[in-house]
């Protein structure tokens, strides 16, 4: 049996590509986002009363992976990218139906003319990711303090991030300098390189697109250095 699903909205986030997106929401708290509702969901009535909840569950599509198919086993980054486990024992993006879910903070509802937006906290979603449903986060049932986290029991280590003089100079005239610098440090501090390079020095210069910027950086075993920041 086949089912048809239409997006109810699209995320607007700083992440312009999959590379460097935090692997869980709230790991980069400064990287706030908003959800633009579309179609029949674009209505103040559809979100009436939602402000009484501090957090929401977002169900979304891994739209950039849907054509790639899936396999029954995956290599989670938290296991170094070397050990295989079942896809259903992971949050891997390559899944049978390409559906993901994230618990995110709701900061408010904004109405701009005929357009309804949900202002959100940190997300782990690429810009323009299609959202297929929204559900309130219910603390008494959704939060389980004694739950086991398996191989993801502990929060990931965070590296120190430094901006080179050139990078600081490039960012100095940006109207959102302080906010963008905070996002860059939180995102790169997660070490977005392939899992097998975690904890290892690396001579390669990487680049990631955040906001309207191309951010270049290098990584040693303990820190990240932003070498250059260029506008698109």
Largest sheet: 6 strands, antiparallel, barrel
Cα gyration radius (Å): 19 Å
Assembly state here? single chain
Helix content: under 10%
Which percent range describes the beta-strand content? 25-35%
Kindly state the number of beta strands.
Answer: 12
Shape: globular
Question: Uncertain regions: pLDDT < 50 for 5+ in a row?
Answer: none
The tally of helices reads 3
Order of helices and strands: EEEEEEEEHEHHEEE
> What number is the mean pLDDT?
92
Structural class computed from helices and strand pairing: mainly beta
Task: Give your account of this protein's structure.
It is a single chain. By secondary structure, the protein is mainly β. The chain is built from three helices and twelve strands, in the order E-E-E-E-E-E-E-E-H-E-H-H-E-E-E. Strand 6 (99-112) and strand 7 (115-120) form a beta hairpin. The longest helix has 12 residues, at 177-188. The termini are far apart.
Which descriptors would you attach to this protein?
6-stranded antiparallel β-barrel, mainly beta, 12 strands, 33% strand, 10% helix, 232 residues
What is the fold's blueprint, element by element?
Layout: E1 9-12, E2 33-37, E3 55-61, E4 73-74, E5 85-86, E6 99-112, E7 115-120, E8 130-136, H1 139-142, E9 160-163, H2 165-171, H3 177-188, E10 202-210, E11 213-219, E12 223-231
Parallel strand pairs: 9-12
Antiparallel strand pairs: 1-2, 1-8, 2-7, 3-6, 3-8, 4-5, 6-7, 10-11, 11-12
């Amino acid at each position: 049996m086949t089912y048809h699903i239409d997006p109810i909205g699209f995320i607007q986030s700083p992440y312009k590509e999959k590379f460097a997106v935090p692997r869980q929401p709230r790991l980069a708290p400064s990287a706030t986002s908003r959800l633009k509702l579309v179609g029949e969901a674009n209505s103040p009535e559809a979100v009436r009363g939602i402000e009484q909840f501090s957090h929401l569950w977002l169900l979304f599509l891994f739209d950039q992976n849907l054509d790639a198919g899936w396999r029954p086993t995956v290599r989670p980054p938290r296991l170094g990218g070397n050990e295989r486990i079942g896809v259903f024992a992971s949050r891997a993006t390559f899944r049978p139906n390409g559906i993901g879910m994230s618990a995110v903070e709701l900061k408010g509802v904004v109405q701009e003319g005929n357009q309804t937006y949900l202002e959100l906290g940190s997300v782990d979603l690429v810009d323009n990711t299609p959202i297929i449903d929204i559900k309130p986060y219910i603390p008494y049932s959704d939060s389980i303090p004694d739950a086991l986290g398996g191989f993801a029991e502990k929060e990931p280590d965070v590296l120190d991030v430094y901006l080179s003089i050139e990078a600081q100079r490039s960012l100095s005239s940006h109207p959102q300098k302080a906010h963008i610098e905070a996002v860059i440090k939180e995102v790169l501090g997660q070490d977005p390189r392939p899992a097998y390079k975690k904890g290892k020095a690396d001579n390669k210069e990487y680049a990631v697109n955040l906001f309207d910027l191309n951010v270049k950086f290098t990584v040693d075993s303990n820190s990240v250095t932003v070498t250059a920041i260029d506008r698109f």
